[in-house]
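User: Modeling request: complex.
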Amino acid sequence: MTFTLTPPASFSLPAVVRSHGWIQMSPFSETPDHGLSYIIRLNTGKVLRFEVHAIGDTLRVDSTELLLEPEQTELSRHITWMLDLEQDFTEFYALARDEPKLARMVERKAGRVLRSPTLFEDVVRTLLTTNTLWKHTLRMCRELTSRYGDPLPCEPELYAFPTPENLARVDEPTLREGCRMGYRAPYVTELSQRVTSGELDLEILKTSQLTTLELRNELMTIKGVGGYAAANLLMLLGRYDYVPVDSWALKVVSNEFFNGEKVTPKQVLETFVRWGKWQGLAYWFWDWSPEL
DNA sequence: GGTAGACCTGGACGC
DNA sequence: GCGTCCAGGTCTACC
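Assistant: Request completed. Predicted assembly structure:
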């Protein structure tokens, strides 16, 4: 079935889809027209694949399954969140236009960051990005999804991302060996159990009134979430006060601002501090010079 | 508050 | 084929 959504004026579907590496991780994929494809499990337990295509000024959503009205409402809510349709970037764009290294992202209507439907899923994905190579992150995510996600009825070889309940049931050694997640396995197990038991409500953080610092502290109570992961998750929550400093950040900032000299995480943070509450976005969408 | 070492996986490299 | 080294963030213990 098909329905439509109306995006804000300054919106580009390809810009969101390609905003970062999530699109390469299962069950995300990019459609040939640079739209979004994703396999989701709704609250009713229904598993479906949906595609979002930009058609003129609207977004067309195609679903592999027929949806009841509450299911369509739920799916619309998820897509609105995933594509960050409600965020207003007017203030940031006004600042970014005067910075040659950000002017291009304004032209491309970039700034929105692709999200998973749930924060639980984004935390798990982020845990899988830490202390490993991107290739291995993709493998771990693929294994996790295909082993513990619910299958798509019309293409049972494809799966939705596993729910907290699914992952809470998997014992840690199985997760460790099956998905070759190493020491990350107990982090994912503990997170899944905390969410399933109700001890940790991640979804409430999406609309939290906490300050960014308080939100950061809350995220860092999750085992395996340190400074980089918390900053990354804050970006996904629409808070851009922190720059996620990883090895790539150290490299590009060194190349761009320090003539290739080795830099510390503190120097990376100082480089973008002038962007205030937008510093994470300025870093993320900076038009980095090619390495010499 | 800062630092060192351990945690894992898998690819590159030398023998 | 085997052993060693390395990259990638976070945690814990220690100072």
